[in-house]
Amino acid sequence: MPEGPSIVILKEALAPFRGKKVTEVSGNSSLDIARIKGKKVIDFKSWGKHFLICFEGFTVRIHFLLFGTYRINERKAMTPRLQLQFKNGEVNFYTSSIRFIETPLDEVYDWSADVMSPDYDPRKALAKLRRKPDTLVCDALLDQDIFAGVGNIIKNEVLFRIRVHPRSLVGKLPLKQRKLLVQEAVRYSFDFLEWKKAFVLKKHWLIHTKKTCPRCQIPAVKEYMGVTKRRTFFCGNCQVEYQ
To answer: Which residues form a coiled coil (predicted)?
Structure first.
């Protein structure tokens, strides 16, 4: 599943189509995608893991789910969920969820919850965390109402950075650790963006998919943890469990 930084990269890559008219539309979506033909792209936006194509009067929301992909000016050997053609190229979205948003985006999205947004509000994030004292911190980081854009890689790496065990309860974290959690969720997301653009993201993983803790030089632990049962990598020695 693409995380927030990857959606920002997509938004930047599609900049040449901003202000351009859609000349043809196709795909296996069950929605009335034909309504997009002839419409001009007003803007591309992102919120967390949602990619947003803005037209006058409506927005197309694309969520890549677990296995969604896209291709710009090239195609895969399968039918796209949505294909948009322009005079200067095309974009294809595969295995994705497509929805129309008919209302203004400011009424749909809380931009202050998007870790990649300049409007991200750490104070609001801390307040939301206080209201979830019995939540595992690994689940809290994946809560899109608090950390929109954070996915499994960022979750694992942030918790390793701040030395917090993923099974820790949010309400048991010292205030200093809660603040670090919020700060590092944002900081790592922008590190992710930089490394992803440079094609060196995996080289910088410290604990995600690793078999050995780089700090302790002992076996790392892999568990399917939390309400979502996502893959969780951690060190049982240097990451403190707050219970």
So the answer is: none
Q: What pLDDT band is residue 2 in, cutting at 50, 70 and 90?
A: confident
- Give every strand in the sheet of 82-86, ordered side by side: 24-26, 82-86, 89-94, 69-72
111-234 CATH fold: Helicase, Ruva Protein; domain 3 (1.10.8)
Span between the terminal Cα atoms of the chain, in Å: 30
Q: CA 124 to CA 135: how far, in whole Å? A: 17
pLDDT tens, position by position, 174-200: 999 999 999 999 999 999 999 999 999
Q: Residues of CATH 3.20.190.10 domain(s) within the chain?
A: 4-107
Q: List the alpha helices (DSSP H) in 131-228.
A: 137-141, 152-161, 175-197
Confidence of residue 229 (pLDDT cuts 50, 70, 90): very high
pTM of the predicted model as reported, rounded to 2 decimal places: 0.92
φ, ψ (nearest 5 deg) of residue 54: -100, 125
CA distance linking residue 42 with residue 21, whole number of Å: 9
